[in-house]
User: Fold this.
Amino acid sequence: MIVLLIALSVADGALAQISYSVPEEADHGTMVGNIAEDLGLDLSKLASRRFQVVPGSRTPYLGVNTDSGVLFVKDKIDREQICKQSASCQLNMEVFLENPLELFRVEIEVVDINDNPPSFPETDITVEISESATPGTRFPLESAFDRDAGTNSLRTYEITANNYFYLDVQSQTDGGKFAELVLEKPLDREQQAAHRYVLTAVDGGRPPRTGTALLVVKVLDSNDNVPVFERPVYAVTLPENAPAGTLLLQLNATDADEGLNGEIGYSFSNHISSRVKDLFSIEPRAGRIEVRGEVDFEESALYQIFVQAKDMGPNAVPAHCKVLVTVTDVNDNAPEITFSTVTESVSEKAAPGTVIALLSVTDLDAEENGQMDVELLGEVPFKLKSSFRNYFTIVTDGPLNREQADSYSVTVVARDKGSPALATSKSIRVQVSDENDNAPAFTQALYDVYVTENNVPGAYIHAVSASDPDIGRNALVGYSILECEIQGMSVKTYVSINEETGYLYALRSFDYEQLKDFTFVVQAKDGGTPELLTNATVKVVIVDQNDNAPLVLAPVGKNGTAKEPLPRSAEPGYLVTRIVAMDADDGESARLSYSIRRGNENGMFRMDWRTGELRTARRVSAKRDPLRSYDLLIEVRDHGQPPLSSSASVLVALVDSATEGRGDGDRGGAAQAAESGLDLTLILIIALGSVSFLFLLVMIVLAVRCQKGKKLNIYTCLASDCCPGRSSCCSRQGRARKKKLSKSDIMLVQSAANGTGTGTAQVPVEESGSFGSHRQNQNYCYQSV
Assistant:
């Protein structure tokens, strides 16, 4: 008969306990009960909610149909094999439902049936009794053994009816029965030396089962004193796992007889169990009871040892005592951790309280040694949550971030409260799955890209790069250019971008003179759902190339040749014309320099390379300059790499007077004459004076040759001063002054004079003043002495 008991208890969730009972030896397939129906569960939802048995609690004897919830017998149950002599035999099983999590504990009580008869260790039992034994003397008999438990176990003993003995059946503290043969009438060996009876052991089953043995009572001659123990019952305490040889008890029985009749030997009584004999030993002569085997509190907490003491005399009568051994628990079992289910991965967006594992913790020890503290090691975003008795769940306890930690090693530690405490740890690996919670990030917010003009269309110009700390599709970055206009046209007609690599390409050849720079926005977008994006600004700067030659703007002449007049009376430094040019490039490529490439073989002209001013380098001489015009080729060159140049053709025509000039040439001659303070009258005076001076000059040259050196009287004049010897000027200005020059200055003046006599020279001289040293051009009047 199967009995159903249901007990429901709620503890931090939907939890329940259900109890059944099943008789042992039940046939395979016998239905024990329907767990789902008894718990009131919806049978149609068992599969979707994953109704299953906790792996660690499975038993080979029972099975559960997870589709119907039926609990059935899967294999033959032998209660005696599973629980031995234990009063209670219980099988435990845990089942649970997922989504939401519900845990149920199923307890199955195995009911004993009377399938084992009592049996004696030996078929023949011999008891020796002295004829001097007085009525009432007790003789313990060897006990029978019944493998069944409860009411089906050994209940009583019976003996063949006789006039000398009766049986006194007594109960042990563990519920076992043993019989003592009690003498009712004195024995007389001479009348009957042996008595034979049938000893029957009867169990409490219905119907009862029996076992028998032949009891032979041998009557011995008298030994009128028996050993005496100090006390009939000894109580001792023994810690479990005590090593072999540990002294349990020192017995000391006494006998008033002398000689062999007073020498005592100790032994275990016949009715103690074989297990006690395996665990303990007794020294026959000394009476020392010692530990022999491994005493385990978890096996049994109490043992009874029956000891008899018998003297060595003839017809010795044994004395008996009982030793009660209480085994104390030692913390020799570490807690055990069993994971029933573990989630492979958890989303980084999982809400706090998400279950990732279910586990149970057990300890075989008792009392404080079996009480445990369970915790998680380290700082992890998880916590333990108690579910039912020793069941726990590991749940999330805070936000997860895969980019900071993509997995966690979660270690559970169970530590009992014994002394010393024992601990067990077990770890699981929890993977954190990725969510698209990070937008791509550019390496720079602003990219400066420099592209040389006249680039090849389609050429690579730069690369932008963005990274995404996510993984998989969430980290795939695609690039694009946001639409905008540059000089009225779409930016996508200027540049393009590789969507996968971020490489930028120029779609046209850029011209610095038309477009110096432009700006656009690049967007990086990941492949997650939803997509996340980031923008960066790209500024393209066009770098100038020297691709424009200088352009000559002035002077302008017919057929590409400009004509400029030069009076024969022009002084050195006379401004003939000024070349004006420009360059469309920028920087060094637009910085120009001017030079005379052709037509100045006799050094008539000099060109200011910076300003483009063409001036006379000396006076016009009829002997040195027989030509009436000079065809000059002026080159204008920029400073680019490589440099580019242009040329201008200037035809300088010699005229007899400044009035014959035209246009800008007249203006240039007049300006030169004004700067020198000269007019036509002065020129004529100088010409006449020069002829008169020739003779004197020859004489002076001859005299100089006779001297070791040559001295110069040098006079300095300001820009508006005139030199000594020119009375029309010096008398008017009156500012000429004599000056002593250094040797280097004299050499410069001589080089400028390029001859003898009296004249002027414009020489750069280093001057110093309150503002520091500087070089300036100074007019020097020289006169050979």
Notes: The mean pLDDT is 80. The chain is about 10% helix and 45% strand. The longest helix spans residues 680-706.
